[in-house]
Amino acid sequence: GQQVMQIPQYQHVQEGEDFTTYCNSSTTLSNIQWYKQRPGGHPVFLIQLVKSGEVKKQKRLTFQFGEAKKNSSLHITATQTTDVGTYFCAGAGSARQLTFGSGTQLTVLP
Amino acid sequence: DGGITQSPKYLFRKEGQNVTLSCEQNLNHDAMYWYRQDPGQGLRLIYYSQIVNDFQKGDIAEGYSVSREKKESFPLTVTSAQKNPTAFYLCASSIQDYNSPLHFGNGTRLTVT
User: Fold this and answer.
1) I want to staple B6 with a disulfide (CB 3.0 to 4.6 A). Which of A40, A62, A94, B105 is the partner?
2) What is the pLDDT of residue B41?
3) Nearest-CA residue of chain A relative to B58?
């Protein structure tokens, strides 16, 4: 079945450093979505990428969708303590459902 | 304010008992979902429904049951057949289907002893 792998599982950074999390799907995706879950909270939708090679920005966050539509990344520039949380990618594809990656837990040290 | 309401926030049950988790939405979304989240893991799909009176099994449906009698409501029953029921359960909805962004409730943390 469809699998979505996400790395790294954990990332500790100093405030001001950059952060990147990567997702890889075993199958071609129709779209990929990114979510953020704060500690003790629920996932909140960040963005959806649909087109091959698509790049979208939200302030300090940059999202990319690979040319083959099988991988994606989220890059945060100059992290802040408010960026703390777990970032999930979720791919929609042949399984006709949204498959979540295992998430990257980001810790930002002040 | 529109949103998804899950209740209760915390739930404690004895092994062997069935328990029903509530999920209500007032977003007028067609699709609703139940996910399970275990520590250090992603979200795994239990059941989903794209229309009233219809639902499909997700990846880990064994030991769970659902109903969708109203558009607004999608309760999940964790039966005694579920071997490891202790987890964080998240209900979500989307406008149409899995291609639409999900809106999540605050979750129910179930502990079975």
Assistant:
1) B105
2) 80
3) A97
Average pLDDT over residues B32-47: 93
Residue with tokens 């539509």: A69
B61 contacts in A (CB within 8 Å)?
Answer: none
Please give the pLDDT value at position B42.
86
Position B1 confidence tier, pLDDT thresholds 50, 70, 90: low
Span B58-69, average pLDDT: 96
**DSSP E strands, B1-113:** 4-7, 10-13, 19-25, 31-37, 43-51, 54-57, 64-66, 76-78, 87-94, 103-104, 108-112
Task: Look up residue B101 and give its two tokens.
Answer: 């962004």
Residue A4 CB-density burial (10 A; 0-12 exposed, 13-18 middle, 19+ buried): buried
CB of A35 within 8 A of CB of A43? yes
Residues of chain B neighbouring A51 (CB-CB closer than 8 A): none
Residues of chain A scoring pLDDT < 50: none
